[in-house]
C-alpha cells in the first residue's frame, strides 16, 4: 500500500472518530439533565457514574465505595435511591460516619446504605399518587429489608425511617439509566432491632 493511501485511510479514520465523538457529545448535550451538587446528571449514565460528579454527595460516594456497593449500584437495576447530601451526614452524631466507614463495620454500613434504596423505579409523581391512594402515607420495602414511609408535607415529599426521623426530598426525579435518584436532606436509619 502506498504511503499516500495509508495517510488517506488514517485521515478517514480520524474523521470518523471525531464525528463519533461529536455525535456522542451532541447526544449528551440534548439529554434532559438536572443539576445536583454543581454537576449535570445525565439520564444515559448510571447512578454511580452521575453521583461521583456531585459535590453534595462526596460522603455518600465514599460510603458506597467503602461498603463495596459500587458494582451493585452500577448494575442494571432499576433502583430508586434516596440520596442524602453531605450536610445530612454532618447532622449525625459526631464520629458516626467515621465509625461506619471502618472495615469492621462494613456490614452495618451496607445496611444503612441499602436502607436508602428501593427496588424498581419510582418517580415522584407516582410516589405522590401512591401516598394519596394509601390515605396519606405509603410504605416502601427497602433493599435492606426494612421499610420507609413516604408522606406529603404540603407539596413536599417526606420519607420517614423506622425511628420516625423524616427526610425531605429536595431534588426529585434525577433520572439515571438504571433508575432514579431523589436527593434528601437527612440520613435515614434502619431499625436496630
From TrEMBL:
Keywords from the UniProt entry: Signal
GO cellular component: extracellular space
Stored SUPFAM superfamilies: FAS1 domain
Key word Signal present: yes
Residues annotated as signal peptide: 1-24
All copies of domain FAS1, residue ranges: 44-188
Protein name: Beta-Ig-H3/Fasciclin domain protein
